[in-house]
Amino acid sequence: MSRLLITNAQIFQLSQNGDKVNILTHHEVLVNGNRIEAVQPTGSADPSHFETVIDADELLVMPGLINCHAHVPMVLWRGLAEDVSIDRWFNDLMWPLESNLQAEDVYWGMLLGLIEQIECGVTAVADHYFHMSYAAQAVEKIGARALLGYAMFGSQGLGAVKQTARFVQEYQGAANGRIRTIMAPHAPYTCDDAFLSASAKAAQRLGVGIHIHVSETPAQTIASYQKRGITPIEVLQRTGVLDVPTILAHVCGATPTDIGLLEKYPVGIAHAVKTYLKLGEKTAPVVEFAAAGIPVGLATDGVVSNSTLNLWETLRLMALTQKERMGQGEAMPIGQALAIATHGSARVYGQPDELGSVTPGYLADLILIDLNGTHHQPLYNIPASLVYNMQAPDVRTVIIDGQVVMHDRQLLTIDKAEVIAQVRSRMSRLSQLDPEKRIQRYGN
Ligand SMILES: [Zn+2]
């Protein structure tokens, strides 16, 4: 197994609830194969015993960020659904644009998005999309980590559950374990009870979780009351979805009763605040989720609603919007925000004992951050700078599963120019928008 030594580093350490941040200086990280073997003072190990030695020159080593809910290949339509409401975003733009999608587009779109993520220090993503065997090939090629769910709608019939279950089985543990899989029904408003129950049963049988959109807006909660007499969260409870480990995307329309209910189940919430802000929708009650002990992780959602896959933006906007909605500067303190970005995201992603911390035994998903930029000076408070001052290019080096995938901003596993050229060559076909193709699926 290959061995990697990162010397002369600062190491970011954080207690589970975020109340204690510790920055070790003059330390080194030993990586054996895909795991962290030791964190110790620089000089403890003999560099000649390692195949790769990175002199961090006091860069900060942090766990890679985890994107808990995305549709990475949607980078293909970046900028094509701006300044619209959520129903126009879906019905007039996104669903008609997606009807242009071909399987191979997913491979190139996924690669472009994964490059953007690596350049931002995002090392893992829970992705929810179509043609997922092509997404898996992209993950394998670039060396990323991903939790892949093949999106399905109730309108496809129960056969879709069987088909996507086959994807789950075939790709579970692929790419040397960097790929895990999950069942991915779209949402309670696009899947009826029988479809959701079948999804939950398949997940249980396969020993995997579920990744689903739910209560994206308060209006969806009201519509669910009108149609089914219960909230979307209660729909997931009665169909057995909450009994399996589930990633709930958004939950902005959660009622206090919903929050009391979610406490009792093995679920986590993926929070994509920039998408809510752009669509003019309410953000989620993250402070209340955290107080109830419900894990929360950072997410971007797709780029067509979020503009980027940069989780530092999500981190900053989450802290700011929670302060604003609580009317308290003390709300969502820096340590809590960082705990959501690390431990919380690892819990939602389903690998809390292997990801989200620079700790011996954990998987070696590490990012090296340069805090020498003017926007960090003078640097009294590293945790504050991480939440409020970070720019993506501050991330210099990225290691995933023990492999260096970006070193000093140079990508090592992929030809970025080729990926961009491939995506550009698809722009005219992918952007065709026929007004006849309007698909009224949202808001029913
Ligand atoms: Zn989404």
Binned, the helix content reads 25-40%
The main sheet comes to: 9 strands, mixed
First and last CA, distance: 54 Å
Radius of gyration: 21 Å
Poorly predicted regions are none
Tell me the fraction of residues in β-strands, as a range.
15-25%
Q: Which shape, going by the Cα principal axes?
A: globular
Number of strands: 17
Query: Counting H and I runs of at least 4 residues, what is the number of helices?
Result: 16
Structural class: alpha/beta
Q: Mean pLDDT across all residues, rounded?
A: 97
* Small ligands present: zinc ion
Please give a handful of descriptors for the protein shown:
single chain; 444 residues; alpha/beta; binds zinc ion
